Fold each of these.
Amino acid sequence: MSKIKTLTVETRCYHCGEDLPFSPYILADKQFCCLGCQGVYQILSSHNLDSYYAYNDVPGQTQKTQTPRLEYLDEPTITADLIDYQDDETTVITFYIPAIHCSSCIWLLENLYKINPAIIQSRIDFLKKQVVITFKNKALSLRELAETLSRIGYEPLISLQDVVKKQQYDVSDRQLIRKIAVAGFCFGNTMLLSFPEYFGLSGLEQQFKDFFGWLNLAFCLPVVFYCGRDYFSSAWINLKNGVLNLDFPLALGIAVMFLRSAAEIFSRSGAGFADTLCGLVFFLLVGRWMQKHTYHHLSFERDYRSYFPVAVTLLKDNKERPLPLNKLKQGDRILIRSNEIIPADAILLNGTAKLDFSFVTGESIPVEKVLGEVVYAGGRQLDGAIELEVIKPVSQSYLTRLWNNETFTADKDRIKTFSGTASKYFSVALLAVAIGSGLFWLFKEDPSKALASFTAVLIIACPCALALSSPFTLAAVLSIFDKNKFYLKNTAVIEELARIDTFVFDKTGTITNPEAANFSFNGKITAIQKQWISDLARNSGHPLSRELVKWISLPKQFTALDYQEKVGRGISGRIDGQLIRLGSTAFLGIEPIPQLQGSAVHVMIADRYLGYFLSSQQWRNGFKDLVLSLGRHADLHLLSGDQEHDRKSLIPFFPSIQHMHFRQSPQNKLDYIKTLQNKGHKVLMFGDGLNDAGALKQSDLGVAVTDNINNFTPGCDAILDGSSFSRIPNFIRQAKDAVRVIHMSFGISLAYNALGLFFAVQGTLSPLIAAILMPASTITIISFTSIAARLYARKNHLL
Amino acid sequence: MNMIYMLIGISILLALIFLLAFFWASKTGQNDDTYTPSIRMLFDEEATGKVDQKSDEDHL
C-alpha cells in the first residue's frame, strides 16, 4: 500500500498535481510537469512564499496553457472601464480570477506585496473569486500587474462584458438587510413592551400602560414607513395595472393594523397590535431575503461579450496597436495570434488558419481555412499568427447577430408562480369576508363591533404565512439542488421546472462528454502492442494522446527511448526495443484514409502499419437511463449543429425520427424552440455552447450543461454541472414535490387564517390572540416547508 | 416606580447603539464577504514553511 502511495506522489507535479511527463523538470528536489509550473515555484520560493505549498497539497493550476498577450492594458481608453479608482499615486482594480480555488490561493494573493513592493494591498473575496488590488501606479503599470498575476498562475479574466460584479448589487442587498435589522429591533422591543399588557397590569402599574402604548406606536413608525414601504408601493403599482397580488392584502393588513393600533392608543381604548405588526413585517422581510438568494460565483447573464477579448491587435501602416473591440470597423486589418479568438467575421489574408470552434459549435476537431476564405467570429486560432480583414462589425457577425434577435431585447415573461395565482382569489375572498362581517354587525346595529370585526378580519387574515410558504420551500429546494451541483437563477425556476413537458437536447458537449473519448481500433493489435502504445503516448501532452492513455488504462511498464514529438502531427520513440510511431497519416508517410468520422491516431510499429484508433464521442454517464426515464412522460428532441454521422447511434434514444435535427444554425435552434412553444409546449433546453444561447434564452427554461461552472456559461436560467447530468429526473421529481409542499403549506396557513377569522368575525379578536397566532403560524410554515422539502429530497435521492 | 421610565429609556438607547453599530458594519461592507475572513484568520503571521532563516529581518 505504502509503495503505491509513494509512487503516486512521485509521479505528480509538485505545483499542480498533474501527471509528470517522461522527463520531468526538476528544481530543488521537486518535480514539475512543465516549465510554467517550475517557473511559478521559482518565483514563489525566491520571495519566501513557500507556505503556499504548506497549506494545501498541489495548490497550483497547470501552466501548460499559454498566457495571452496583455498589451492592450497599456491603452488608457481600454483600462478606464476596468479601474475602480485612480489618482496620481495609487490605482484600485478588481480582477476576476477563475483559478482561485483553495486557501493557498487566498494566502498567496494576499501576500502579493512580497513579490512586488509596488502592490500596497490585495484583498480576496473567495466566493466571488475576485481580488481587489491597490497598487502604486508610478512603479507598476496595470499590464505589469496582470502579467505578474499570470506568471504565478493566477491569470485575471478580462472580458468585454465585465465579469467583475458591480457594487450596485450589494446596495439593494444591504438595504434589505438594514430593513430586516430595523424591523427585528422594533419587533423585539415592542414584544417586551407588550408583555405587561398581556400578563395583566395591577392597579398600581396602570400608569405605565399609556407610556408603553406610546412607545409601541413610536416603534411602529419606522416599521411601517421604512421597512414596509415596498409593500405599499408594490400593491399600488399592481392595483393600477389591475393585478391583485399577495402584496395587496399584505399592505392592507399592515395599514389597518397600524391605523387601528394608533386609534386604540390615542383613544386609550386598547393596547393595539404593535408587536404583531412589527413581527409581521420582520418575517415578511426575512422571507424576501431568502428568496433573493444569489450565487456570487456564477453569472447567468453572459453573452458573446464575455467570450471575446477586450481588445484586438490592429495592423495599420505596418504598425501593430491594440484597439478596443467596440471600435473595430469594417475593412480593418487585424492580427490574430496563436490562441486568440477571432472577434468578427473576416477574410483570411495571410497565414494558415487552423480554428477551434468548440466554443461555438462544441465541435472539437479544428477547421482549416485557406487564404481568401471567410472566417466566422468565435473561432480560436491554433496555429501561428494570421492576418484578417474585417468584413462585418462585431455586433453584426454571424455568431453575434443572434443577440440582436428580439428574444434578447424583450424581457422574458415572468414565470407564473402558484402564489401569484392563488393570491388573486385569496385577496377577493378576504375582502368579501371582511365586508360581509362588517355589514353583518351593522345590520345588527352595532357599528363599533362592525368596525372592529372589519379591521380584525383584515389583520388576522394578513397572509404572512402564505407569503412565506413559497420562499421558504423554494429556498430549501434551491440549497438541495445546489448541493447536487444544479444552480438555479432564482426560486421561480423551480416551479417552472415542475411544468416542463418537452425536453430539447443539444448534442456536442451536452449529451456527449467533452472530457472522455471512446476509441475503437481498426486493424489488428495485440495486448503487448497496446502496452507499448500507451507507454509512448504517456510522454505527450497532446489531448488525443492523453485520452488514448486514459482509454487503454494500463499501468506504465516501459520507458521510451529516443522520444520525439512533432507538435500536432505525431510522436515516435523506441519502446522495449521496438520503434513505434503514432500520429497522422502525413506523419507516418502513408496514404490518407478518406471519410473518417472523428479523430484518428494511426499506429506504426517497426515500420509496419497496424491500423488506427478512431475516437468517437462518448455519451455522458447515465445518458441512456436519463432518456428512458424522461421519455416516459415528456417529448424529447435533439438539435445539433453537427453533421449527421451520429444519427444512427442516437436512434435508440430518440424514438421519433422527426425529433432529431442536424446541421442547425443558432437561429434555426431558436426558431425550433419557438415553434414548439407555439404548439403549447413548455420547453426545457439543455445546451452548452454559444450556438445554443438563442435557444436557451427562448425556451421556457434554459439549462446550461458545463463541466466547469466558472468558465463559460451562456445566458440561461440554470447551470448544471456535467457530473450531475444523470440526476435530471430526480431534479424534476423534486421540483414537482416542491410545488406539492407549497400547496400543503398553503393549506396549513389557510387553516390558521380560518381559526383567526373565527374570532375576528365575532369582533372579539384580542391583541393577545393575534400576537400568538401570527408567530405560531409563521414558525409552523417555516419548519414544515424546510422539513418536508428535505424529506422529499431524501426520497428523490438528492440528499 | 418612576425609575422604570429611566431604565426603559436606557435599555432602548443601548439597543439603538447596537442597531447603529450594525448599520455601520453593513455600510463599511463587513457583511459582504462572510466566507474569506474565516479562512484568513487561520493563516499564521509569518510563514510556517521550512524557509525561516530570513524571518529575523522581518521582526524589526
Amino acid sequence: MGIDPGALGNGFPMNEIARNRVITAARALKDLADKPLKFMEVCGTHTVSIYRAGLRALFPRNVSLVSGPGCPVCVTTQDEIDTVVRLSGMEKVAIATYGDMIRVPGSTLSLAQARAMGASVHVVLSAAGALDLARRLPETTVIFAGVGFETTAPATAAVVLEADRSGQDNFLVLNFHKTVPVVLRTLAKDPGLALDGFLLPGHVSTILGLSPYVPLATEHGLACVVAGFEPEQIMAGLVLLALQNREGLFSVQSAYPQGVRPEGNERARSLLDTVFEVADAKWRGLGLLPGSGLRFRPAFSRFDARIRLGLTDIPAAEPAGCRCGDVLTGRIHPAECPLFGFPCTPEEPVGPCMVSSEGSCAAVYRYGRSELP
Amino acid sequence: MCLAIPHTLIAITGPKTAIGRYGTVEVEVRTDLIDKPAQGDHVLVHAGFAIERLLPEEAEEVEALWESIRAHSGTASR
C-alpha cells in the first residue's frame, strides 16, 4: 500500500518541497519499521505539530507515538501554581508570567481569576518584560513566575544578571524552571512505558547540544533523535529512530541541523551556570526528581522569591479526577482521561494539559478528535 | 515546549538588543545568548531571546540528512 498524501491535514501549510519530504519520510518509515516501535515525543510543541499536520495518519501500523513531559506549564506542580496564586494576593505585589500560566486552575483560584478579583497579574512574552515591569513599578515587588526548560531558563538568567548589575531589588523570580535529561532517564527506566526511543526536543537541544542524552542510548539502549518542529523535520526524526532500531545501534543523532549544533549553545549554558545550580525539582505526575531542576546560586539569592519572602511549600492535591500526570508521562492517551471533553475543555480546563497551547490534551481536543474511536 | 520562531536581525540597537523581523512583524530581540550578533543574521527567537543562528535549508548538513532518508525510502511502498 502506498502513502496517501491526501491523509495530511490542512492545519499546517506546507510548500511542495516540504510535502514531498513528508511523503518520502513516510515511505522510509514504513520500510524501516519491521517490528512494533513505540517512541515518545518529548516536547509539547512536537505534539501540537504532529496533531495539527495530521501526521499520525501517515504512520505505519507498527509505529506508535506517546506524548512526554515537555510542556513546562503542564509539569508545574499544583503546589507551585498555588504558591504564585497566593503571592498574587499580597499587598504591593505584581505577578509577571507567561500567558499559559494564568489560566491553570489552582486549588482555589487561577491567576486569571485572582486578577479578576483585583490582583496585579501581568502576562509577559519575555523575562525581559518582567524586569521592565519592575522598572516601571518601583514601589511594587514584581515577581516573575519563571517556568520552562533549558530553552527558557537562560533568558531568566540573563535578566537576573541585568537586575543584579542595575540593582533592581524589587524584581524577584519564583523559579519553576526544570531540566530535561534527568526526567528522560526516569521515563527510560519505566517498564510500563517500554519505549524504543525518544524524539528529542529541538530547542532544548539548541542549548544543550547532544551529549547530555548519550546515557539514554548507551545505558538504556534507546534510540535518540533530536527533531525540529516542521512536519518534514518530525518525520525525518522518526525515520532515524526507526533506522537505529532496525540496525540495533543506538546513539544520539540530530535530524535538525538547522537549529541545533552538536555542542549546543555554550554561551547560553554559561549564563545559566553563572546564576543557577542543579537542584532537585518536583514534577506533576512524577514527584521529586533529584537533579532535575535549578536553584539560585548564593550570589544571586536576593532575587529568589522563595528566600526573600520566606516561602514554604504547602502540599496541594491535584484536581479530582484529572490525569494530567499520566498524560504527560505517556501512560495514557488524553482521551483515556475520564474528564477529557466533558467537563475538561480548553475553554473550561480542569488540568494544565488542557490549558497550555503545548498540552497534549489541548492538542488532541483541537486537532486530533477525528482520530478518536 | 519551546516554540522558537526564525527572525532576521535587521538592526543591532545595543550591546544586547536588536530588531528582528519575522514576515512583516518587527520586534525587539535580546541577543545576550548569541556571540557577535550582526545585521542580517537569521536567528531562532524564543521568549524574546535569540537562542541560535539558523543554518539555511540548503546547508550541506540538511541535504545530507535528506539524502540518507531518500536512500531508505520507496522499496516496499512502490
